[in-house]
Amino acid sequence: MRRTRSQQRFLSLGFSLLEMLLALAILGTSLAMLAQIAESGVSAAREARALASARMICQGKLSDLLLNVAGGQTPATIIDAPAEAFDSETTETYQYSTEVMQGQLDGMLSVRVTVKVFAGDGGTPLATYALDRWVIDPTLGLEAAEAEEAAAREEIASGGEEAVE
Q1: 137-147 pLDDT, tens per residue?
Q2: What is the per-residue pLDDT for 138?
Q3: For residue range 78-121, what is the model confidence (pLDDT) as tens digits?
Q4: 158-161: long-range pairs with CB below 8 Å, 24+
Q5: Do 118 and 92 meet the contact criterion of CB atoms below 8 Å apart?
Q6: Rounded to an integer, what distance in angstroms lies between the CA atom of residue 140 and that of residue 69?
Q7: 100: which strand partners?
Q8: So where are the chain's domains?
Q9: Using one digit for the tens of pLDDT, what is the confidence trace for 19-57?
Q10: How many CB atoms are closer than 10 A to CB 47?
Q11: CATH of 47-136, one of 3.20.20.70, 2.60.120.260, 3.30.450.40, 3.30.1300.30
């Protein structure tokens, strides 16, 4: 059984077509995997940016709270208040909470500030960041005692003489 040239050419073309289909299938699978990897990279970058923003907002809110405590104000618990983003073009929304609890030691308060970053649709949080600090309870009046002690030290340092105006 001899094959004619046309049959041999047909068989060789068929084999080439099969190779081509196999190569296209491999290429398609590879492109699908690369797209998945690229999307996970974009998602990780978005989460990292959201976490960095949440950290900056959290540090700012805690600093404000500590300044108020230093001024004699007792910190209050705040639940899910909106926070302003540093980037005006962001589509994410930010919420912060402040939790104030009695510390393990008398006269101390435990303060936790938590910031959550939500995507534009408001679904599950992209990132959450929290900071904890212990502060002296301003209702104890320890600041007044410290001021009296400082005044007494100044009086001792000046030799016990009252300042004359």
Answers
A1: 877 766 566 77
A2: 79
A3: 888 888 887 777 788 899 999 998 888 878 889 999 999 998 77
A4: none
A5: yes
A6: 12
A7: 111
A8: 47-136
A9: 888 999 999 999 999 999 999 999 899 889 888 889 999
A10: 13
A11: 3.30.1300.30
Q: Which tokens go with 165?
A: 């105006």
Residue appearing with tokens 């510390």: 103
- Residue 14: both structure tokens together: 């068929």
* DSSP H or E stretch at residue 102: strand 93-102
pLDDT at residue 11 greater than cutoff 70: no
124 φ, ψ to 5°? -70, 150
- Alpha carbon distance 75, 64 (integer Å): 10
Q: Tokens 């907002």 correspond to what residue? A: 57
Instruction: Using CB atoms within 10 Å of the CB of residue 24, give its burial: 0 to 12 exposed, 13 to 18 middle, 19+ buried.
Output: exposed
Contact predicate 78/97, CB 8 Å: yes
